[in-house]
């Protein structure tokens, strides 16, 4: 729940920033000189990119949560079996061991979105965020029966 609140607060702050930046861009465009129009266009590009990025990430999170909900309903969510240090951080050797099992499971069933979902969690636990995201995108694509663009 805490992560959702943080995400929505961050998204709200970004939207406010996009509106402020966009209004400044429009004001620059209204000045009408070649310099202010150039700056106005440049200022308007940033909110457009930001809105696109925010939209893509929001869709990614929503789809990943949908898959997690389905796995939970099936009773197939991965169990947290990781060892932690006294501060609660995941021990690297433990994460590597679980990762090796998840990778073998995915290699045995490469067309199963469930195994890709569990592999994404294992990548995340092993602190490999880029590969975790790619594995989750693959799980989403397999779930939606679309070819994955990873």
Summarize this entry quickly.
With 150 residues, this protein is mostly helical.
Helix-strand layout with pairing:
Elements: H1 2-31, H2 34-74, H3 92-108, H4 113-125, H5 129-143
Helix pairs in contact: 1-2, 2-5, 3-4, 4-5
Explain this structure.
The chain has 150 residues and is mainly α. Helices cover 77% and strands 0% of the residues. It contains 5 helices and no strands. The mean pLDDT is 91.
Shape: elongated
Number of helices: 5
Query: What fraction of residues sit in β-strands?
Result: under 5%
DSSP E strands, number: 0
Mean pLDDT: 91
Oligomer: single chain
Order of helices and strands: HHHHH
Instruction: Determine the fraction of residues in helical runs and give it as a percent range.
Output: over 70%
The CA-CA distance between the termini, in Å, is: 29 Å
Largest sheet: none
Rounded to the nearest angstrom, the radius of gyration is 21 Å
Output the keywords:
mainly alpha, 5 helices
């Amino acid at each position: 729940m805490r992560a959702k609140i943080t995400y929505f607060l961050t998204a709200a702050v970004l939207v406010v920033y996009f509106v402020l930046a966009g209004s400044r861009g429009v004001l620059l465009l209204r000045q009408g000189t070649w310099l202010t129009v150039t700056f106005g266009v440049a200022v308007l590009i940033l909110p457009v990119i930001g809105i696109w990025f925010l939209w893509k990430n929001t869709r990614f999170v929503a789809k990943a949560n949908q898959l997690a909900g389905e796995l939970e309903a099936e009773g197939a969510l991965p169990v947290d079996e990781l060892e932690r240090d006294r501060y609660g951080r995941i021990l690297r050797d433990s994460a590597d061991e679980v990762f090796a099992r998840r990778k073998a499971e995915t290699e045995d069933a490469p067309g199963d979105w469930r195994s890709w979902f569990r592999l994404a969690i294992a990548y995340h636990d092993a602190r490999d965020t880029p590969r975790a995201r790619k594995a989750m995108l693959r799980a989403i694509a397999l779930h939606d029966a679309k070819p994955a663009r990873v």
